[in-house]
Amino acid sequence: MVLETIRTRQEGAVLVAELAAPPMNLLGPELVRDLVELIRGAEADESLQVVIFRSADPDYFISHVDVTRIVEYRNEAARLVGEPSLGLLLRRLSASRLVTIAVIEGRVRGAGSEFVLACDMRFAARESAIFAQPEVGFGLVPGAGGIQHLTRLLGRGRALEVLLSADDYDADLAERYGWVNRTLPAAELGPFVRALARRISRFPPGGLVTAKDRVDRVALAPVEDFRHDSDLFLERARDAESQRRSREAMRRGFQTRSAEMRLGCMVDELSEA
Fold first, then answer.
1. In whole angstroms, how far apart are CA 253 and each of 124, 132, 192?
2. If we measure between CA atoms, which residue out of 197, 149, 228 comes closest to residue 51?
3. What value does the mean pLDDT take over residues 60-89?
4. Helices 146-154 and 156-165 sit at what angle, rounded to 10 degrees?
5. What pTM did the predictor assign?
6. Is residue 118 part of a domain?
C-alpha cells in the first residue's frame, strides 16, 4: 500500500502499519483517509490475517483528533462506514476479520486512546507510554468508543476515574487497570509483538474470525451506542464553555508538540483561566 501518513510492510500474513503524520500524529482527515484505505485494502487481501499498528514518532502514538478539522475527518470516515462518525469507523476496525494489535510508545490520548482500544490487543512500552481521555476537561465526552471500551475493560469506578480526572496515566497503571494487555521494556516490546502476530497468523483464519466474533458479541457495544456517543461529542462541542476552554487551550499551545508533553497539567489549568 502507498499511503501518505502510514508506512506499511508485509511480513507473511502480518501487515505492519507505522503511523507517520507529523508533527505529532494528530488524527486528522489525512490520517483517517489513510486508515480507511488501509482497512479496506487489508480486508480485501486474503493473504493477511494480522495488522500491527505502531508509531514512527517515539513521543506520540496518536495525540488525539485535530479539533480544527472535525467535519473533514468525519467525512473521511463516512467513506467506509456510510456515516460521518469516527466512532463508527473505529468500531468497524474492532469488528473486522483482521486481528489488530497496537504497539504503544509515547502519548496516546483522546481519540488516540480510542483507536488503540478499538484494536484487539494493546501492548505498551513501560518507559514511555502515556494514556489519557482528556475530553471532560474541555467540557466534552469521548465520542469514538472510549466510554464503551473503558467501562467494559476497567469497570465502573476506574472508568469514571479515568474519564472524570481527564489526567495522564503511565503504562504501569494502565496495565494494572486493564487499559492494555501488558507492558514490557521498550527493547522487548517489538520482538514480543512480532512473535505473537506471527504465531496468530499461522492459525486457520476460520477459527480466528469465529473466536473474534463470539468475543465481540459479549464485549463489543452495539453500533447504536457508538453512534450516540459520537452525537454527544458534537453536542458538547457546541457548548459555550467547551468552546472557551478549547480557545484557551489553543492559546497555551494545544496541538503543538512541546505544549502537549504536559497536556494533563494544561487541562487542569484551564479551570483557572
1. 27, 18, 36
2. 197
3. 96
4. 140
5. 0.96
6. yes
Is residue 217 helix, strand or coil?
Answer: helix
Q: How many domains does the chain have?
A: 1
- Residue 140, judged by CB atoms within 10 A of its CB (0-12, 13-18, 19+), counts as buried
Query: Closest Cα partner for 86 from 159, 29, 37?
Result: 29
Q: Is residue 48 part of a domain?
A: yes
Sheet of strand 130-132: strand arrangement: 60-62, 107-109, 130-132, 169-170
| Residue 191 pLDDT grade (very low, low, confident, very high; cuts 50, 70, 90) | very high
* 214 is a domain residue: no
Q: Nearest to residue 89, comparing CAs of 20, 154, 27?
A: 27
Burial of 60 (0-12, 13-18, 19+ CB in 10 A): buried
DSSP 30-88: HHHHHHHHHHHHHHH-TT--EEEEEES-SSEEE--B-TT-HHHHHHHHHHHHSSS-HHH
Element (H, E) at 122: strand 121-125
What's the domain range around 162?
6-201+219-272
> Would you say residue 273 has pLDDT above 80?
no
| CATH code for the domain in which residue 139 is found | 3.90.226.10
527493547: which residue's cell? 187
Which residue type occupies 187? Answer: A
Share of the chain above pLDDT 70, in %: 100
